[in-house]
Design a protein that fits this description.
The protein is an alpha/beta fold. It has helices spanning about 40-50, 70-80, 95-110, 115-130, 150-160, 180-190, 230-240, 240-250, 270; strands at about 1-10, 15-25, 30-35, 55-60, 65, 80-85, 90-95, 140, 165-170, 195-200, 215-220, 225-230, 275-280. The strands form 3 sheets. Strands 6-9-10-3-11-12 form a 6-stranded mixed beta sheet, with helices on both faces. A 5-stranded antiparallel beta sheet has the order 5-4-1-2-13, with helices on one face.
Length: about 280
């Protein structure tokens, strides 16, 4: 589904991503964890094609197609979706109309059926029930007057309506109390299928109590320094990021130094299965 090869990216000539390698197969959910400033949101924006970020080297393949240089709207048409950490208000634009416009734009590009107002309203009713969102909110302006939890549920509703192949969820749990986290997690779980994939970015492992990841990766200073299963998230929760920051510094050793052992900067497919890679 997604393959990232030695990805380097910068903003304003400052390098943020320093060689990210990652493979996400269809049906998998990968969690990216890391402290503030580690490059998690930069990775999300780069994958989505935000113009202010420059890819200086590397490849980003979605189903074998290199997305480097592809416009954000074409990435969306290809099946990529990004939920925002801080969703913005769009005054004057009703949510249901906004969602129908996005749905029809993607289906038109794929030469699939576009929906009229009545057909789309029936679809939207099903999707709001699926993600636990009040239908009345879809008749209001996008995120205007929404609570934090409602804004995050709206992001998951967009994911439900657009049915992307790859969803990048940038801290869907940030700013939410535990009940709201559980509701958002339930929506994510409802939308998982063997055909789609999810890249979930988070600081903390608490959302992973409700969303079961296939793999967890720790991103430090623009590099994935360790990968594992859910136990790695529990380890981060218990020990913090200091130990992983020391591992990232070890990656700057001269070429004459011996390579790091397995688990210190990469993960062996033979250990984890499914061919996942998380190389720093």
């Amino acid at each position: 589904m997604l393959e990232i090869r030695d990805l380097h990216a910068s903003i304003n000539d400052v390098e943020i991503l320093k060689g990210v390698n990652l493979t996400v197969n269809a049906g998998e959910l990968h969690a990216i964890m890391g402290p503030n400033g580690s490059g998690k949101s930069t990775l999300a924006f780069v994958l989505a094609g935000k113009p202010t970020y420059a890819i200086t080297s590397g490849q980003v393949l979605l189903e074998g197609v290199d997305m480097v240089g592809m416009a954000p709207e074409n990435r969306a048409r290809a099946g990529l979706f990004l939920s925002f950490q801080q969703p913005m208000e769009i005054p004057g634009v009703r949510l249901d109309q906004f969602l129908r416009a996005g749905y029809n734009a993607i289906h038109k590009a794929r030469r699939e059926e576009e929906l009229d107002v009545l057909k789309f309203d029936r679809l939207l009713t099903r999707k709001t029930k699926m993600v636990g969102m009040e239908a009345a909110l879809t008749r209001r302006y996008v995120n205007e007057g929404f609570s934090g939890g409602e804004r995050k549920r709206n992001e998951i509703l967009q994911m439900a309506v657009l049915e992307p192949k790859l969803s990048i969820l940038d801290e869907p749990d940030s700013g939410l109390d535990i009940d709201a986290v559980r509701i958002v997690a339930q929506g994510i779980n409802q939308l998982r299928t063997p055909q789609n994939s999810v890249l979930l970015i988070t600081h903390y492992q608490r959302i992973l109590n409700y969303v079961q990841p296939d793999y967890v990766h720790v991103l430090i200073n623009g590099r994935i320094v360790q990968s594992g299963d859910k136990d790695l998230a529990l380890q981060v929760e218990a020990e913090g990021y200091d130990r992983f920051e020391a591992k990232e510094q070890a990656l700057d050793l001269s070429p004459s130094c011996p390579p790091l052992p397995k688990g210190e900067g990469d993960v062996s497919p033979s250990l984890l299965g499914k061919g996942a890679r998380g190389l720093g």
